[in-house]
Design goal:
This protein is α+β, with helices and mostly antiparallel strands and about 550 residues long. It contains 13 helices and 19 strands. The strands form 4 sheets. It has a 7-stranded antiparallel beta sheet, with helices on both faces. Helix 1 runs antiparallel to helix 5. The longest helix has 30 residues. The protein is globular and about 75 Å long.
């Protein structure tokens, strides 16, 4: 009976811990200034033990933030050893190699004290709308050009805010109020986490989390190891070619299963780029690990224990292990492709059936007009900087069509049109699903989108393009066909490049076609009922149905 009660108590405490970190994350959502945080949930939040091991993460958040933050806290402990921490301290950095991969993400860590004793650490991260430099795009030649670097510093020292740091951030941002607000919202969300954890510990009469932490980590690690051990030992290789910037990029992985561990090695991948599409290893590890977990152990909590059996390596100075001072601003363009690369390895194991490739990388539309006198116009027109999260199609699945206009693997939501139009002079002329963009298959790939955006003010605006799958669309699987290629151009007809800062002239408008997901299974095996329904719903044209599926009603 005692053991059963202990198990019940442990489960209750675990559920309570999840509620603590979820409230932590929701506080960040409610207080953040950046729409990508407020509306899209582009953030992470979690609680860690005093060794820097992640115990629990909020459901709200992205794999890139969460899994890289899981490693980041260990670097904080090197900079600020536990014995030097005081109540009222808050620490901060945006180091791309010890944080979450680029300068726009701030990571904030707050120690939690119970009756004067350090019992845990809370960490969170989110995206700032502007961190100075040349702007949020891949055009930088090194990380120095990409914006302000904040080393490991005290944001709050014993309860006293570091106003000098705040002033430096404000002085280096085009939107100083928003930058300060976002940083303070990170500190506020950790404060809520600390308060709720202390309430929980008093309620359960705990003076330490050590026992609960060991239980969580051990149980999670054992559960993942059991899943891995059930797979056949062996090595499996896969590769993917994506658009890149100056030239195409090859992503090459070898996945080795041995006993209860998995190793992923990216030897053979392209070298580092001279542009800001490089990936720090911590971000590559985050998404590669997610690709494993989502297929073989999706029901096991994500924490230090469940991440431990998976090891990710890449050669120094390849595009997935770029070294400082390489430019890394748009690291997500490459990093978010890695689950599909991992899926290509796992697809060779009969017991595992990954979906077809999807758009994968977010089609974030970073649009700005910083110059108040663009084209000689008066300064009555609006300066703005917006990040409109847009998405393409997900690949078809073994028994279901792919999801349309869905952010996989990042998991963020799109910023609503109404929000963008209320904070900027931009007008969405069109935003709809893109017919015939889903790859044909037994299970069709998800559809991309057709988007058109115009400046209501009669002045130019800039697009900081960091888009992919234009030249190399998502591939199908198990006989499925490729999804629709992406496109970016002007309403007047001129195509634009998928990468780099480009101008949309006054009076013209931006046209974006996001890619569709690849199909799964041979198109000839798709049911006639499903094809007819696609045609009725406007997802597939009659001409495409006839050519892709040999469908004649």
């Amino acid at each position: 009976m005692h053991s059963e009660l202990s198990d019940i108590h442990t489960q209750i405490m675990w559920n309570r811990l999840i509620s603590v970190v979820e409230e932590q994350a929701q506080t960040l959502v409610r207080t953040a200034f950046s729409p990508i945080v407020r509306e899209s949930g582009d953030l992470s939040a979690g609680v860690f033990d005093m060794d820097g091991r992640m115990l629990a993460q909020a459901v709200t958040g992205t794999p890139g933030h969460v899994n890289s933050m899981a490693e980041s806290v260990k670097h904080f402990l090197i900079a600020f050893p536990a014995g030097t921490m005081r109540e009222g301290d808050v620490y901060i950095t945006n180091d791309p190699w010890k944080g979450t991969g680029h300068l726009h993400d701030m990571v904030v860590v707050t120690p939690a004290f119970l009756d004067g004793s350090l019992v845990a650490l809370f960490a969170c991260t989110s995206h700032l709308v502007d961190i100075g430099g040349i702007g949020f795009g891949p055009d930088g030649r090194d990380v120095i050009e990409e914006g302000l670097y904040v080393p490991f510093l005290r944001l709050i020292d014993g309860g006293v805010k570091n106003q000098t740091l705040i002033d430096i951030v404000r002085g280096n941002s085009r939107y100083p109020t928003e930058a300060e607000g976002d940083i303070l919202s990170l500190a506020a969300c950790n404060d809520i986490g600390v308060e709720r954890l202390i309430e929980m510990m008093r309620e359960f009469r705990l003076d330490t989390l050590q026992g609960l932490a060991e239980h969580i980590i051990t149980q999670s690690r054992n559960a993942v190891e059991t899943k891995i051990a059930a797979l056949p030992d062996g090595s499996y290789s896969s590769s993917m070619r994506v658009d890149g910037y100056e030239q195409p990029i090859d992503l090459v992985a070898t996945l080795t299963i041995k006993g209860s561990t998995i190793a992923i090695d990216f030897t053979g991948s392209s070298g580092a780029s001279s542009k800001g599409i490089n990936v720090p290893l911590t971000y590559a590890q985050a998404y590669s690990t997610y690709g494993i977990r989502v297929l073989i152990a999706p029901d096991i909590p994500n924490n230090a224990g469940s991440l431990e059996p998976i090891h990710v390596t890449a050669p120094v100075n390849c595009i997935l292990n770029a070294q400082r001072p390489a430019p890394v601003s748009s690291r997500h363009i490459i990093g978010q492709m890695l689950p599909d690369v991992v899926f290509g390895c796992l697809a060779q194991i009969p017991a595992i059936q990954p979906p077809a490739e999807g758009t994968s990388c977010l089609w974030n539309l970073i649009m700005e007009n910083h110059a108040s006198t663009a084209n000689g116009a008066s300064d009555n027109f609006n300066r703005f900087s917006v990040l409109s999260v847009q998405t393409g199609g997900v690949g078809g699945r073994p028994f279901l069509d792919g999801l349309s206009a869905t952010a996989f693997p990042s998991g963020v939501s799109g910023v609503p049109v109404e929000i963008i139009e209320s904070i900027s002079p931009l007008l969405f002329r069109c935003k709809e699903l893109r017919p015939d963009s889903g790859g044909p298959g037994t299970y069709r790939g998800g559809l991309g989108q057709h988007i058109e955006i115009q400046n209501r003010d009669p002045v130019d605006f800039d697009l900081y393009a960091a888009l992919d799958r234009i030249t190399h669309p998502p591939r199908g699987r198990a006989g499925g066909k490729v999804g629709g290629s992406g496109f970016v151009g002007l309403g007047s007809g001129r195509p634009l490049n998928g990468k780099g800062r480009q101008t949309i002239p006054a009076g013209d408008w931006l046209v974006v076609l996001t890619p569709g997901g690849g199909g799964y299974g041979a198109p000839v095996d798709r049911s006639r009922e499903a094809i007819a329904l696609d045609i009725d719903n406007g997802l597939v044209s009659a001409d495409s149905a006839a050519s892709d599926y040999s469908f004649n009603p």
